[in-house]
Amino acid sequence: MGRRFASLLVPGLAMLLAVGACRRASEGASEQAGRKRLVFKYQPLWGAPEPFHELLARFERENPGVELVTEALPNSSDLAHQFFLTSLEGGANDFDVLVADVVWVPEFARAGWIADLSEYFPPERLRADFFPGPVEAVVVEGRTYAVPWYLDVGILYYRTDLVPRAPRTYEELQRFAREAMAKSPGVQGYVWQGRQYEGLSCNVYEALWGHGGEALAEGGRVLLDTEPAREALAYLRGLVASGVSPETVTGFSEEEARRVFQEGRAVFMRNWPYAWSEAQKPDSPIRGKVGIAPLPTKSGEPGWGTLGGWQLAVNAHVSPERRRLAAKLIAHLTSPEANLVLALNYARNPPRPSVYDDPRLRAGDPFIANLKEMVERARPRPVTPYYNLISDVLQSEFSAAVAGLRTPEEALKRAQKQVDHLTGEGE
Amino acid sequence: MSGGGSLERERRQAYLLVAPAVLVLVGVALYPILAAVWLSLHRFILVFGERRFTGLDNFAFLLSDSRFWSALGNTAYFTLVAVTVELLLAVPLALLLNRAFPGRGLLRASVLVPWAIPTVVSARLWAWMFNPEYGVINRLLPGPDINWLGAPGYALHAAILVDVWKTTPFVALLVLAGLQGIPEDLYKAARVDGASTWRMFRSITLPLLKPALLLALLFRSLDAFRVFDAIYVLTEGGPANTTETLSIYAYKTLMRSGDFGYGSALSVATFLCVVVLAAVWLRLLGREEVSR
Lengths: 427, 292
Hints:
Family (chain A): Belongs to the bacterial solute-binding protein 1 family.
Protein name (chain A): ABC transporter substrate-binding protein
Strand content of chain A: 5-15%
Order of helices and strands of chain A: HEHEHEHHHEEEEHEHHHEHEEHHHHHHHH
Structural class of chain B: mainly alpha
Helix content of chain B: over 70%
Oligomer: heterodimer
Number of strands of chain A: 11
Distance between the termini of chain A: 61 Å
Number of strands of chain B: 2
Organism (chain A): Pyxidicoccus parkwayensis
Order of helices and strands of chain B: HEEHHHHHHHHHHHH
CATH class of the largest domain in chain A: Alpha Beta
CATH topology of the largest domain in chain A: D-Maltodextrin-Binding Protein, domain 2
Keywords (chain A): Signal, Transport
Shape of chain A: globular
Strand order of the largest sheet of chain A: 2-1-3-11-6
Family (chain B): Belongs to the binding-protein-dependent transport system permease family.
CATH superfamily of the largest domain in chain A: Periplasmic binding protein-like II
Largest interface: A-B, 50 and 43 residues
Structural class of chain A: alpha/beta
Number of helices of chain B: 13
Distance between the termini of chain B: 40 Å
Shape of chain B: globular
Radius of gyration of chain A: 24 Å
Number of helices of chain A: 19
Radius of gyration of chain B: 24 Å
Strand order of the largest sheet of chain B: 1-2
Number of domains of chain A: 2
């Protein structure tokens, strides 16, 4: 009987042991050969893999004895965040370099999950070499916690055949849209992202900056209930209520907006640079009829697009030696040469201004080269460790205001109350 | 004497045989539940890097949290409407499938297709169909375009529709099994007595179907109360949290905000609601069994 019991238990235990042994064996094997493993967790870059693999292979050639292992993350930013939340909180040290969305760096730094890289990448040097927005997003309390890898920015797309030029003010945008809608029935004015998710927050921040506001006050307090914020929400709600934007934008994310625009059914669209290559495909009905511009503002000066994109950071749980090696890999992957490889092969915007002036970029992808002005003005969302803690609250209140369920005043008051509750006690 | 000994041995053997299964259950079911309860008694927000015991503070806050109550309301509404509609549709569907007609096997199989598609896939499918600008539903329906997933009044109903589409076949199958357990003789006798079809349905089919219906009610309402995937894919809880259910609120609090203490309290509250619901149904089911 005891034996029978054992016969049931033994295979299970054996399996557990085997799994453990395998892990240990693989670690041991690489150490025996005198090779150091460096694990890089990143999200797949769309496009042919060869140029990127060549970039990684070059690092291995320049650092003999290092074995570079890449591991893919889920493509959704939310899922990747969930992965890091659970594994880094659990002290995982089976990866060295990780890619972080622009809003995660302060959170991860505060939680002690990513290493201080100031000795390898002093903030002053980052400021000299990179655009100001991304540097602001990775430097927390004067220390560098990540290095910008590639970036994204919110821009305005417009139909060159329907409007005389790109609008500079909100008033112009609405007037141009109405005139074009009157001339071509069935075409909508302005499509953007109004669904309850992070993309809506980006649209709201852009309107906030365009009305002269800031989302973060002195001392790092997240301040929402302000006059520019009320104006921004009233502007966005007004677009929907007045019919310049279809009511359906309250259910739109990036792709919904892009499809409507791409079918030739909208005059203006707010979106990220990725929509450009789709619009210029040979079978696109709007090919050759699309222009890009900075987002409009209340005053008419070029607008500030939300900064998006990814940064490279080092897992704080790995040994100092691996940390040093990881910093070396980051330096390699964020070099001007690497920026160029990513821009030319994967249409990823370089975070270094100098790369935009490189003749190879101008010859290879003039669209990216033309983005320089907008990338320069890209602004990060509130740089605070609490960003993910509060963004959920913001999304639901912004959504309520845009859908007309609450007035901007009410929505902002409610949001401010909840945010203060969430962050208040942690100070 | 020796017989008793062998019985005793058999009993011990039985315990030993189920022991691995019990151990696995304790590991994968009981431990996470207890861990969630333990976490729910803490203030544990990842970015603050602190973890301290606060007793029932999270639950006290939960009672005053309007977002919790609206999520509970959405969940209850979703469950009530979806399960009611599913039962109302499933009974005629099962009666139809129970009849003998050519092609019945094929129909029975094809009815199950929606249920066989993974929820995330079917929800994505429906999200495209609901798309107000280029989705097929607005093209098929007369009248002005409806903003299915972006308008506060519509989004939750759109989600209910997706759930009804997906799980009605499952309920119909349960009802069908119940129908097939009713002896044909009862109908023959009723026919001899001159009972109408309606009378036979009311006096024979429905009472004898009650256990199957209650079982379907139990399965479906517990399932609907935990709804996450379909709604998450369709709306992520928007617009303005009008489709946010308890599971979605708990997920967002845990995994996006990194507020493990309060997120666990929300999970525990959801768990308690499901337990209460299950207890109520099981009591009803049990009484049904006794009265038979």
